[in-house]
Amino acid sequence: MTTKARKDDDYYSILNCNRSATYEELKQSYQELIRKYHPDKSGGSQEDFLSIDKAWKTLRSVDSRAKYDRYLDSETDYENSHLVHVELSKSQISFNHDNTTNYPCRCGGTFVIHKEYLDEEECLIECNDCSNYLLLK
Ligand SMILES: [Zn+2]
What we know:
single chain, alpha+beta, Helix Hairpins, Microbial ribonuclease fold, three-stranded mixed sheet, two-stranded antiparallel ribbon, 5 strands, 17% strand, binds zinc ion
């Protein structure tokens, strides 16, 4: 459940672009890369080809790009702890018979905490309604 930023292999980096790149820039870069890494070419690589293709398929659509941006933002913000609005100590929790317990989020949603999360030293739990996190430690 712990979220770690993996900025090195985010879709923008794969396409040699930054996050402010326009659709045309992304597309041009994608086309260059796909030619370069095409598995039929010498020096090509199936693995690179597939990840380039996946990156492009995510970023070419406004909707899925926006979704992906939000995902990146949530990871970045986690590092700055902006999205962690609740910190809960393990000792504060008591579990129900099914070994879960609910903790309310300020949005009206719920953090569902499972007993096995306590095995982790720290655990991030995302609200089931919004993008806030509860940090369990
Ligand atoms: Zn929430």
